[in-house]
Each structure stands twice: as structure tokens, then as C-alpha cells.
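Amino acids appear as letters; backbone shape is given numerically. Here is one record.
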Amino acid sequence: MTGHVSFYAQVTANFDKAAALTQYPKGLLDQIKECNSVYRMAFPIERDNGDIEVIYSWRAEHSQHKLPTKGGIRFAPDVNEDEVMALAALMTYKCAIVDVPFGGAKGGIKIDRRNYSQSELERITRRYTYELLRKNFIGPGIDVPAPDYGTGPKEMSWIADTYSTLAADKLDAMGCVTGKPIPQGGVRGRTEATGRGVYFGVRECVNLGEDMKALGLSTGVSGKRVVVQGLGNVGYHAAKFLQEAGAVLVGLAEYEGAIANPDGLDLEQVMAHRRETKSILNFKGATNLPNPQAALELDCDILVPAALENQITKENAPRVLAKVIAEGANGPLTAEAGEILNQRGALILPDMYLNAGGVTVSYFEWVKNLSHVRFGRMEKRFEERAYRKLLQASESLTGKKLTEAEVAEYTGGPSEEDLVNSGLEETMISSYRQIREVRLKHPAKPDLRTAAFISAIDKIVTSYNDLGIFP
């Protein structure tokens, strides 16, 4: 059933719901909503056995109200134009919500990467980059891709290398893509950024007593029963940070199945079991569930769908018991499912806010590439010396001498990763507070997703007005 739901229609429906609560002219709202450009590519690659195969791919630039546009590239067998357009639109709104100065974009290559060798994947990625560059769909000031489902630092390094080879005169060439390996201009903390952002967003939500009281929950992450669907980069790190904060993982789901234990599952032990057996099923002490979707219906406080879109629909939404649904993936709930859960009184943390950690840290990486200096390089030792002087003054006044280990702990200046994580934490906290303020101040008292859309629309309209396009 889920395959028949238009993802782009879901995003549009949510936008229209929020737009109806604003006072902006219809033409302006239509312009914000429309996808600016979609580039469909079909190119040949040679397989390792000498066969020629045509590869189909897309790149969508949803909004150019700010440049460059920004969005990941996914490798998946079910990639299609509708999905790419929807994800590009979500990126536009996501960047606006967290005040990252990008327009939204997204790319996809229609392949199952498990069916291709490393060298074949490299040829596909490099040819895709060439096609983008040929039509001016990539560049540090034009359109900056990033990892997504089925891609990672290695693919980003191929993109960066291909671009810098073809545009060798560009000083800022490494800023053409983010999510790169550290030696190629990547930023520390990027790998776990989206999952860490999910954790920061959930933590901020459950720390607000008024909202938790309405749900019948206590404040704080500790003790909350959590189910995570999807143990890829986002789901794994979200589960990891939530568990470290004291949450109890009562259910985990992957494409091969799902497991549950009301007393809690040890994430690292589950991952070790999966590496050994190629499956999370049959984990000691856990119950196997009949299918992965069953995990969505487990009794829990917080549900984190961190797999693919359209996982919760009008069919299974009435059976979802979680009081907080934290959208780690893009579009895991259909618009109809969201209505059902809102009416039940659940609190939905929308994807375009909650999984914005990736694009936030990608922004930091892009800034690092353009400035050509590592975060922390200039201030780390200065701050260490300043802290050390303060400790020495305290020691002189109190007569107490600290050990060298204590001095090192108290005086350590921030590393690049410290600064990146601090910036991400501030972004997630301040953005949630902005969305919640819109929700509380608006006469209609919209749900958080609608409030997030209103916040995004307000900021995009301001950008258009600043450009003088719509005086």
C-alpha cells in the first residue's frame, strides 16, 4: 500500500495546511511550494564483465531563494522523480527552520548498491558528478550534495575528486560537496550529526514539563521506553545517544525483521550480533516480531522511525501506541497518519526539524572549506592558556594544588568536534523553541509540523522580500 502514496503530494499537503494559516498572497505561496528545477539523467556505465548498463538518476533543486542549494544523494532501487522532488522540498523548509542559508535540493541514483562492485559504484558516482557539472548542477556556490540513504564519505570523496579535477582552477572546489572524509576537508562530528541532532531534539522536547504533563509522561530522557526503526547511520546514532542518556530500548527494527524486550536491549550487543549473523533476529533475550512494521506498534513512550518514508499510514496509525513520534527519517508518516496521531494526542516531532542535524553540520563543513581553516585551530591553545592562568590564580588564593590530570581536564580548549557538537546542540534547541513559540502564539494552535512549516514560510518570505523580488 505504501508504494502508492505520492511522497511529494504528502509534503505539498502539509505545506498547504500551514500556508492556509498565513496571510501571504497565494502567488507567493505557490512560488515557495513549487520545485524550481528537476534534472533527469540516463547515462551508460561499463560493468566489470564488460556489459553496458544504462543508469537512471535525478537531481532536483526545489528553491533558489538562497544559494547554494543543498541536499543529499541517495542510492536506492526505488528512487524516483516524485521522491527526489519531495526530499528537495523538505530540504528547503528544513534549512529555513534551522537558519542554515541554503535552498533545498536532493539527488538520487536508481540502483541497489549491493548488486555492484566497488569499482562499478565509483564509475557510477563519477559519471553522475560529471553529468551534474555539465549542466551546472553542482558547485560550492550553486548546489552542494551530501550523503543520504545508501551513500557515505567514500562516495562524497569521489564526487569531490571528480569535481576538483574538472574544475581545477576553483580555489573552493572542496566546498562542492559535504560529508567528505576528514583528510579531504570533512568536518569532525559529521558522521553522527543527524542521529545526534535527533537526540538533542528529543531531549529538548521531553525536558519541557508542560508538554510532558499533557502526555502523561515525566520529564527527561532517562527511563523513557524507546523503539527505533532503522539501524543505519541515523537510527543507530539516535539509539546510541538516547541509550547513553538513560532511555530503555524496548524495540529495534531493520529490513530483515524486528526484535523486542520490555526490559531493554543493549544496542552494541545487538549490532555485534547483527555483524556476526547478518540479522538482528534471534538476539538472546529478545522476542522476534512477525515483520519489521510490527515494531512501530510496540508499547513505548518514544518511537523513532529512522528508515524510509511512508512507514506509518492511515492503515497502521491507529495501532501506534507511542506518545512521542520522533521522525528520524524523511517523511515516515503520511499526512493522513499524522492527522490520526494528532487527534489521539500524540506529539510528533517533524522530520524537517528533527533530522536537520546532518545539514546543520554540513553547513559547518561548507564554511570550513570556504574559510580554509579547521575549527578550533586558532583559539584552542589560547583558551587553554587562559584557563590555566585562572586555575593558577585559584591555586594561589586557596593554597590547593591540582594534579596535572585535573588541570588538563579543566583547561582543555575546544576541539573541532567539540565546537561542531556545540553548534549543533544550540541549533536544535533554539529551533525547537522557535517552532514551539509559533505553535503557542498562533490562534489555531497547530501541531508541531504545521508550526514548523509556518516558521519556514515566514523565513523564506523574508528572504524573498530582502531580495526585492516580492516587494
The radius of gyration is 23 Å. Residues 342 and 447 are 7 Å apart (CA to CA).
